[in-house]
Amino acid sequence: MTVLLAAFAGLFGLAIGSFLNVVAHRVPLGMSLSHPPSSCPTCRSEIAPRDNIPLVSWLRLGGRCRVCSAPIPIRYPLLELAGGLLWVGVVLTIGQSWILPAYLWFGSVTLALIATDLEHHRLPNKIVGVGLSVGAVLLAGGSLLESQPLERIGWAILAGLAYFGLMLALALAVRGGFGFGDVKMAALLGLFVGYQPTLDAVGPAEAFGSLTVSVFASFLIGGLVAIVLLALGRRGRRQEIAFGPAMILASWIAVAWGFGVFEAYVGI
Distance between CA atoms of 71 and 65, rounded to whole angstroms? Predict the structure, then answer.
């Protein structure tokens, strides 16, 4: 049953990825998500429904607009594919649970934030704020339906506040090192990392141990990416490098394996 659910989730995730392309492009520019309809950014021709099938349409058109033949950026099919793969991964990791909708929401929001940070070097308040508020409601509701102790969601909230406080302190101490978008997003990431959906029970050790893994992994991933970009000449020493994607990737690692990694490290 879980495999069948994952297959349906993958198909729906492709469609969600297509919508996230719209979110990532329009929200940072202050545009409406519903108007105007999807159109080619070069010739402004409206995209027909047959050319708006996630992943398939881009492949069938050879990555070009049907009307003007302008290239369609590769990020569009990549985000659609990422949406499908992430939804499958979430279902296989969490399984059939009332918590599942919360983490599907979390996955979609974080994909949109990765796309906006890479394209615009921004983590918009609208996406972070809506992601956090709706995510908290879904997580709390799912936790109640799963008959989890109230302390579990409490520890998750404290983990979110702790991550927010840490990033705020770093942003104030290292001027220009971190944006306040990273600070606000930390509350969202900490909440979902701290809940630890793969564990039967969560207390302070599980919540904050997993959060520790997320924080260290984010700096490790971010540092490695920065070194590679500098070595390849893609970024200069004074150029901004998006840190949000590293934080998000690290948070997903911690959601899936955080406490296990923490236990293994402490046990060395």
Answer: 6
